[in-house]
Each structure stands twice: as C-alpha cells, then as structure tokens.
Amino acid sequence: MRKLILLCTHLAVGAFGFGLGVYALPILIEPESPSVNSVQAVTEKAVLSGEFTKDRQDSDFLHWGEGIVSITEDAIAFEGELAPGPDYKLYLSPSYVETEVAFNELKSTMLKVGDVKTFDRFMLNLPQGTDLTQYDTVVIWCETFGEFITSAKIK
C-alpha cells in the first residue's frame, strides 16, 4: 500500500511539474517584444482593426487574449496581453470563429500569417499579396495542443 501511495504522489508531482513547465517555458524563452513605437506606427497606418477579449466562447483562464490588433496592407500589430503558451500561430479567417470546432472546420480556408512568440506586443509581416478583403477575423491558435486562444473580428 505504501508503494502505491508513493507512486501516486510521485506521478502527481511529476504531472504538476510538467504542466508548470509547459506554462512557464514560453515565458522564460520569450524574445524581446517589438518596441511600443514600432507597434504604434502600424496602428497609426491601420486599414483594419479589431479587439481580442477574454470572453470568447472557447477562451478560459489559461487560453485568452485582450487588446487591440491593427492591420496595414503589409503587417499586423498587437498591443495588449495574451495568456503565455507554446507554439502560438496567427491566422486570418474568412469567417468569425471563437471555438476549437469552428477553427478546425475552417482551418483549410485560413491564411497562416506566422508565429506569435511574445505576449504583450507583437508584429508580423503579412505574406506578400494578401487580399485583406477575403478575411474578417484574426485568430490566435496554439498549434501544439490544438487550443483556441482568442479571436478578433476586424473592420
């Protein structure tokens, strides 16, 4: 009986440590965010913008974002806060999504813009020739774990 208790407690501590590592590692290896000035330069030239909020249907206490996303003809910038996590990707979607199911259904129609590696500000270049009229939503998605983080309707 004692060995079973020891096994269970060690497995629980190991699982807790692994979970903590998955959460903490992106924070520890996060590169420096782009400067406030460079993000504001994109914001000032924005042709589209939207807002990430914590109240998306599939957002929860570990998967959320809040702040403003701004889009020019060649870049996307964000200022606010994202819940830290690994392997975040930014997608442009032709239809609004706020659930994992909807994301997976529409993923083949979306444009993957790039990796999100910072959690307070980021800036990504749009692929050359991106037709912004084809998209109405920006989505942050955790590729590794298949988790919806947040989305913003853009206008």
Structural account:
The protein is an alpha+beta fold. The protein has 2 domains: about 30 residues; about 120 residues. It has a 4-stranded antiparallel β-sheet, covered by helices on one side. It has a 4-stranded antiparallel β-sheet with strand order 5-4-7-8, covered by helices on one side. Strand 2 and strand 3 form a beta hairpin. The longest helix has 27 residues. The model has no long low-confidence stretch (mean pLDDT about 90). InterPro entries: DM13_domain. GO terms for molecular function: ligase activity. Pfam families: DM13. This is Phenylalanine--tRNA ligase. Keywords: Ligase.
Helical percentage = 25-40%
Number of domains: 2
The end-to-end span amounts to 62 Å
Structural class: alpha+beta
Count every helix, treating DSSP H or I runs of 4 or more residues as helices: 3
Task: Choose one word for the global shape.
Answer: elongated
H/E series: HHEEEEHEEEE
Radius of gyration: 18 Å
Report the portion of residues in β strands. Answer: 25-35%
